[in-house]
Amino acid sequence: MTEPATVIIPDELKPSDGRFGSGPSLVRPEQVLALVEGPRAGLLGTSHRAAPVRSLVGALREGVAELFGLPPGYEVLLGDGGATAVWDALTFGLIEQRSQHAVSGEFGAKFAQAATAAPQLGQPTVIEVQPGRRALCQAEADVDVYAWTHNETSTGVMTPVLRPAGAAEGQLVVVDGTSGAGGLLMDAAQTDFYYFSPQKNFGADAGVWFAFASPAGVERIERIAAGGRWMPSFLSLSKALANSRKNQTLNTPGIAALILMEAQVNWLLEHGGLAWAHARTCQSSRVLYEWAEACPVAEPFVQEAVARSQVVVTIDFAESVDAARLVATLRANGIVDVDPYRSLGRNQLRVATFVSREPADVVKLTQCLDYLLDAWGVV
């Protein structure tokens, strides 16, 4: 049998860009140019309190509001750090007493763990399912927050942003946009706090988080802060809200990340916004799912078709295929970061089909997979 390192995939089969990572993700060259050309050139190294950077933040907040079609009264927040910081901030500043968590994978589990460990909160209800399945929140009388992930980056499970049937007034819906934000259609009015990092569909660097909050979410943030609950400044949603209203962050943000994200938001809006992005990721992911269903040694990991992610595709392989060998051989040919999630431990590939990905390159990827499987005689 041919060793992985000696299998050379013909250039005509290869994608134009071989980066298929689920985060950090592919960055379009045009985004990088925005760092040195155009209206934001020269901002690197500028104080985040200075007018040019605050102008950038203000434009980004307006762009996010337009992209997601925010209803009146919703506010765009941003802050320093990543998802872990937001999970902890939510335990301090948005969950009043108890929360309910629908866990479909690693990212939903981490927020549930943070809420469980928070000494100021009651023990949450955790609805957890096996990896590859979709968990849904259920109406519960004595919780004040329902929480889940829009798209589970670890497993490739997609969950709609819809208020749980029977949810009462005053019960907030908190959704981790994760890898779904910017690549999936959603109704912002169905959530009270939707948060995400920019290194997925927005193709930016990490180190900053974005969110939008409903009037009820804003009221909860301000009321908890006014009530005297102790919280670290870095994890204070009320401080993030106050600084965001000034178009700034508590500490210096990654200005490069903000410029990269602004270029992406503008690109999305120019092409038709979330509706265009949704159609594009649907097209790309469909190519992979149809390939897996037709391949005799592969199948989609997520069995329920409506729960299959449009932006992170997970494909299981039969025992006759060594997925680790497949990953290594693809990497040797310049096609990278299609490894399964590190703690999932499955014989599979995980492929990002974020909005920056050209759908034609996804077709090319399936041709490369066919070439290797055929070369190894496993199909």
Task: Describe, in plain words, how this protein is organized in 3D.
35% of the residues lie in helices and 14% in strands. The chain is α/β, with parallel strands linked by helices. The chain folds into two domains: 14-27 and 274-375, Aspartate Aminotransferase, domain 1, CATH 3.90.1150.10; 30-270, Aspartate Aminotransferase, domain 2, CATH 3.40.640.10. The strands form three sheets. A seven-stranded mixed sheet has the order 1-9-8-7-4-2-3, sandwiched between helices. A three-stranded antiparallel sheet has the order 10-11-12. Strands 5-6 form a two-stranded antiparallel sheet. A hairpin with a 4-residue loop joins strand 5 (151-152) and strand 6. Helix 2 (51-67) packs parallel to helix 7, helix 3 packs parallel to helix 4 and helix 8 runs parallel beside helix 10. The mean pLDDT is 96.
Q: Name the beta content range.
A: 5-15%
Q: Regarding CATH, which class of the largest domain? A: Alpha Beta
Tell me the CATH topology of the largest domain: Aspartate Aminotransferase, domain 2
**Strands, count:** 12
Topology, please?
Layout: H1 29-33, H2 51-67, E1 75-80, H3 83-93, E2 99-103, H4 106-117, E3 125-128, E4 145-149, E5 151-152, E6 157-158, E7 172-176, E8 193-196, E9 208-213, H5 215-226, H6 237-245, H7 255-271, H8 273-294, E10 298-300, E11 312-317, H9 323-332, E12 348-352, H10 359-375
Parallel strand pairs: 2-3, 2-4, 4-7, 7-8
Antiparallel strand pairs: 1-9, 5-6, 8-9, 10-11, 11-12
